[in-house]
Sequence to fold (642 residues):
Amino acid sequence: METSREIAIGIDIGGTNSRFGVVTGDGAVLKHDRFPTRTYSKAEDYVEALSHKIKEVVKDYEEYAFKGIGIGAPNGNYFSGTIEQAPNLVWQGVIPLTDLFKRYFDTPVVLTNDANAAAIGEMMFGGARGMKDFIVITLGTGLGSGIVVNGDLVYGHDGFAGELGHCFVYMDKGRKCGCGRRGCLETYTSAQGIKRTVFELMAEQTRESELRKLSYEEMTSENIFEAARKGDLLAKEAFEITGHYLGMKLADAVAFSSPRAIFLYGGLAKSGDMILKPTRKAFDAYVMNIFKGKASILSSDLNGKQGAILGAAALVWKQRK
Amino acid sequence: METSREIAIGIDIGGTNSRFGVVTGDGAVLKHDRFPTRTYSKAEDYVEALSHKIKEVVKDYEEYAFKGIGIGAPNGNYFSGTIEQAPNLVWQGVIPLTDLFKRYFDTPVVLTNDANAAAIGEMMFGGARGMKDFIVITLGTGLGSGIVVNGDLVYGHDGFAGELGHCFVYMDKGRKCGCGRRGCLETYTSAQGIKRTVFELMAEQTRESELRKLSYEEMTSENIFEAARKGDLLAKEAFEITGHYLGMKLADAVAFSSPRAIFLYGGLAKSGDMILKPTRKAFDAYVMNIFKGKASILSSDLNGKQGAILGAAALVWKQRK
Fold:
């Protein structure tokens, strides 16, 4: 059967809301919707309610073959099908998520973390089609990464590989990180990271900026992008600094797996050249000679295209190989 | 046929000398010898002379099936079979090494860099038997790395992946590296690196040390190990510092590929606990919580066992899969 006549459900689980959608094998999102996450204090209740909703939705697509459910979730483990100790979810401990879904579905149910799902999505439906070695960096509240080597995701022996957000920019010093250590990349290059940089710049400089009107709690990376777009020099400098750190650490990542391309996805990546230019500049300056001119830093093809749902659904087809 | 009745030739090409040996499929080195490298200003002449020598040697093992030649060489590229711009070899430019050997042999001829060969050797004949995710760090004049993910070496899109020696300990500063940049790991944690640390300590401190009797050109990492073993405090501190840098950066490497173990091989690694203890201590202190207690830092099983020849020969069997 042609993959265009197949569908899978992609679910992107976030702390407050989940998003899910009906995706065809050639990457069309036929329908998508939101579903509350935080409302359900028990994962069992969440899965039961969402499963009923999915069953209803799938009924509308009876002319397609329903191939399964793919799920991207924070700390989702591909091997065990569990979500483990996810700080942003109300469900604590180890949640046997795929087992819970399998109570309601006979099809495959596949789970991985959100950044790995983004990488699989990029490979099946995005700019990485045809590539065997690439990396996707997700720039959301934190920094996630999905690393593909020789056509397969790098899961590591325990399913938790690909934590580039927790490689060190500074050893022994630098910003405190939610992981309990200091100097991790995501404390500099994420929605939170660029905000911390803005606050550092506001403290250090006397330069005027419209960002001085916002409290720490109010400010979002969209505010910073909007200010930079309008020419706010402090906001622009924050983007320069963010790209500089990211480009430097991507030079390290290339020394590890020598990918053909690195795709930036989500939140901050939507600011386009504002983040891409300084990232590429630092990357070119710091990458080892033997890799110069080989790896491209690109904006993900899935930005603004329900990429998280596409990536999650892609797991179902990628799983079958 | 049982692999114990098969042999391969393993060749380890060094700047001054090469070593080669006859290896059985179950990892016995039946015979090994040296062969000059630098003497031959042309790679063609080197390969011709060495091929004749190998043919003679193989004659003595006619009861075995001769399966091929595996070669570990600086900057050896698995995909192209070429040695490219190797700074320590007299042959400059791009040397089509496997093609040159194939003039003399009908069997497979497989080339990769020395650290990748060490990793394949560890997987077939050493401590990584049965592991699908591990890293071998070679601590020689420089620092090389062979990374195995899901049972396969990470070559990257161009065959040059696995340059952990050129990840940054310090960004923008730190020691000058042969690669033209600053702050690379191998400038701290290699035979050269520990010597540079000793010289830094001799400049900074007034502490007596037998190492003060040696010039920079005279001093080797064996001198430093010997002094440390006898209780020389400055030499011991140099090992502490070296292990500290190595352990910190291995914490980053684990965030990348989440290996089950990291093996230290060669030169400095032969100093055993002197390097292992501070490396493990720093690793435990810096590794991300989710990886704590999962990845072991071990001495390679192939240290002192013709490991470079074993690793090179292992390429022949690994190739066949």
About this structure: Residues 248 and 285 of chain B are 8 Å apart (CA to CA). Chain B has two domains: 3-124+305-320, 130-299.
